[in-house]
Specification:
Chain A: It comes from Durio zibethinus (Durian). The complex is a heterodimer of chains A (169) and B (141). Chain A contains 3 helices and 5 strands, in the order ββαβββαα. A 5-stranded antiparallel β-sheet of chain A has the order 2-1-5-4-3, with helices on both faces. Classes of the chains: A alpha+beta (169), B alpha+beta (141).
Chain lengths: 169, 141
Amino acid sequence: MQFFGGSEISPSPSVPTTTGNNAHMIYVFNRNGVCLLYREWNRPLHTLNPQQDHKLMFGLLFSLKSLTAKMDPTSAEKGNLGVPQLPGQGCSFHSFRTNTYKLSFMETPSGIKFILVTNPRSGDLRETLMYIYNLYVEYVAKNPLYTPGTPIRCELFNTALDQYVRSIP
Amino acid sequence: MAAIYSIYIIDKSGGLIFYKDYGSKGRMDTNDSLRVASLWHSMDAISHQLSPTTGCSGIELLEADTFDLHCFQSLTGTKFFVVCEPGTQCMDALLKVIYELCTDYVLKNPFYEMEMPIRCELFDINLTQALLKDRVVLLGR
């Protein structure tokens, strides 16, 4: 029996699933900075409370996009630092890596941002993010009971996402 | 065809002390390069907060559509980063070479003041030589 939009289930954080997971956590933001989804599978260290963590993540992405647009060595015409960029305008980054994690980022033309945090040895995860975007389109965007701009509470999406992330090498 | 677009050196408080551009269309003026360097310093610090595990030391590589940014942080907090074409290899080795040149020609220079912009001729000369050698080696592969 399938049903969408389980109302009494809170979206996050979830109980960590199997230990075969390479991904630490995932964030999904809309263009206004609302965190639509946050799921964690493997996060030993929590530095801030969830609200601050989401805001910090969104702020970091905004600033990094601004930085890459300004630093772009192949284009001569650039706006000033800090000017909000439209999705697809200016050079955008798709991943960064530290010694403890790798963050992969993808922004759709509608301004939905997907962020996946994995271990640092992961390869290029752009196709993975594209697949997750397709899952979002199928299970969330096409869900008639889902209001855009609100946190995602679709059980099927969560299950499909967990299953897919478990299969990432 | 330049594999390396530009090199930045930032001191431990985030101020830009060295910036050299090697022929990119996106050359920045002094103010912009200062702003970009400080922004990078702050972003690096924020990335520590978002780490899922302990022991994060900072961003090592940023991959964008048209360039890659490799960063090396010394034990004293000085950051060396280089903007290059996507997929350029051996940038980590180059950053270590630049670090060595900096310690030799800048820090051992008795007239150099800490945290001030680097104005050492020998450093510039040797840096250009190291890059040319690197390019020759890269093209020769």
